[in-house]
Design goal:
Layout (H helix, E strand, L loop, with lengths): L2 H19 L2 H17 L1 H12 L3 H26 L2 E2 L6 E8 L2 E5 L7 H12 L3 E5 L5 H10 L9 E3 L7 H6 L3 E7 L2 H13 L4 E4 L4 E5 L5 H13 L9 E7 H15 L20 H16 L3 E4 L3 E2 L2 E2 L2 E4 L6 H4 L6 E7 L2 H9 L3 E2 L2 E4 L3 H5 L10 E3 L14 E2 L2 E2 L4 H5 L3 E8 L1
Parallel strand pairs: 3-4, 3-6, 4-5, 6-7, 8-9, 8-16, 9-14, 13-14, 16-17
Antiparallel strand pairs: 1-2, 2-20, 7-19, 10-13, 11-12, 15-18
Helix pairs in contact: 2-4, 3-4, 3-6, 4-5, 9-10
């Protein structure tokens, strides 16, 4: 291990002794100051996000603002969650306390370079841990800005960037000072991290890919659904784990839904990413656009039909709608991480549920229809970590976020995220 990396890890351990000794109330004051700094610099931070990964500036600034809502949640609820609880037993006192674990490593992706980091770092810090952050290599401006944002006058440094390649992450996990790891990223990265952490009996939290189904049942109101569908697929240029990637539509609505979705997709055109009216960006890297193009071309060779889009120019991928898709095609079986929407018809809700579950992912599902009680009857039939009725899948600080199968292990945000890296200690007094 390089001396610079070793020194950073040792600094994080030294800071842990200081940070854990502070009261929760004092840590909350720290979070308030991070929020103030975040919002005061949101335009500058937003520009850095756009420059790093080609997100439209309005979406970049919105991402920074969303980070502030997460801080608000933990400011309001964090102390009560961390207080633990009393249990009635035969002893005079029995209770649970939540102690911090130590130095926690975060390995974070490029698609939401601020939001992903905040939803890991804020609860981890509030719990009394210190943070090591290995960010994606293609968002260097965001990585630098984040370390600056967490540097608050009057407090010792408790958030540390690690400038290392992905190949060195396992060595950091193996360091005895590192007590746990949270990764948001790809399946291969998650598998490698989980294997290493597991071999060392260290806790791991994984938020990996998704291939969310967006189900439109018979009689659903397309006028209200189409705008949601467009946002669910094309927001962040389709580069989101919780984006709607497979549109499952009742046969009676399939043709109209496909036509209207394609009409909306064709309204997305290239524009100045710094202009507030630009609605879609470039894909973050050319190789990612090529990967999406390959999945599409392989599916076309198997019979898929492009309704609109389908062309690529460097890392610009034209918003695309595809039909005549089967569950054997790569765009159905793989995660399409970009602005590509596929439409598949169904006859019964049971068939739609089966199609939705026919994926190695299990992050979230949306289902739309008029009879909410009937839709609620199907909630327990889905494999996913979240079911949204008449709404697109979103992340909200107040509710747990995470999935099943190859979508990951554990939950972020809410009470779950705050207690992800604590020692839940039982105390008994006779």
């Amino acid at each position: 291990m390089k001396k610079e990396v070793e020194n950073t890890i040792e600094k994080a351990q030294e800071a842990f002794g200081y940070w854990r000794s502070l009261s929760i109330a004092n840590r909350i004051v720290y979070l308030e100051k991070v929020k103030e700094k975040l919002l005061a610099n949101k335009a500058r931070y937003g520009a850095m996000i756009t420059q790093d990964m080609f997100k439209p500036i309005s979406q970049s600034i919105a991402e920074v603002e969303k980070c502030a809502t997460l801080i608000d949640y933990y400011i309001e609820e964090g102390e009560a969650i961390l207080q633990g609880r009393t249990i009635e037993t035969r002893w005079s006192e029995t209770y649970i306390v939540h102690d911090p674990m130590g130095v926690i490593l975060g390995v974070m992706p490029w698609n939401f370079p601020f939001w992903q980091v905040f939803r890991f770092a804020i609860p981890t810090l509030l719990a009394g841990n210190t943070v090591l952050l290995k960010h994606a290599s293609n968002v260097p401006l965001s990585a630098q800005a984040l370390e600056s944002c967490f540097a608050i006058p009057g407090y010792e440094q408790v958030y540390f960037n690690l400038s290392i390649p992905g190949s060195e992450v396992e060595e950091v996990i193996a360091h005895p000072v590192v007590k746990g790891v949270s990764l948001t990223g790809s399946e291969p990265a998650g598998s490698a991290v989980a294997q290493k952490a597991g071999s060392l009996i260290k806790p791991v939290l994984l938020e990996l890919g998704g291939s969310n189904a967006f189900i439109v049942t018979e009689g659903a109101d397309l006028d209200s659904i189409i705008p949601i569908a467009v946002n669910a697929r094309f927001q962040n240029t389709g580069q989101s784990c919780i984006a709607a990637k497979r549109f499952l539509v009742h046969h009676s609505l399939e043709e109209e839904f496909t036509s209207r979705l394609a009409q909306e997709a064709q309204q997305f055109t290239q524009g100045d990413l710094m202009h507030p009216d630009t609605r879609i960006g470039l894909m973050a890297r050319k190789d990612l656009a090529i990967e999406l193009e390959t999945l599409l071309n392989e599916s076309i060779a198997m019979g898929a039909r492009v309704v609109c889009g389908g062309t690529r120019d460097k890392n610009w991928f034209e918003p695309t709608v595809v039909t005549a898709v089967t569950d054997q095609m790569p765009i159905f079986t793989q995660e399409t991480f970009g602005p590509l929407a596929l439409v598949v018809g169904f006859e019964t809700v049971a068939e739609a549920v089966a199609l939705s579950n026919n994926s190695r992912f299990g992050l979230g599902v949306s289902i739309f229809g008029k009879d909410i009680e009937e839709l609620k009857r199907w909630i327990h039939h889905f494999d996913d970590g979240a079911v949204f009725i008449n709404e697109m899948v979103i992340s909200d600080p107040r509710v747990p976020f995470g999935g099943s199968k190859f979508s990951g292990i554990g939950r972020e945000m809410s009470e779950e995220g705050l207690l992800a890296f604590v020692n839940k200690k039982t105390v008994v007094i006779k």
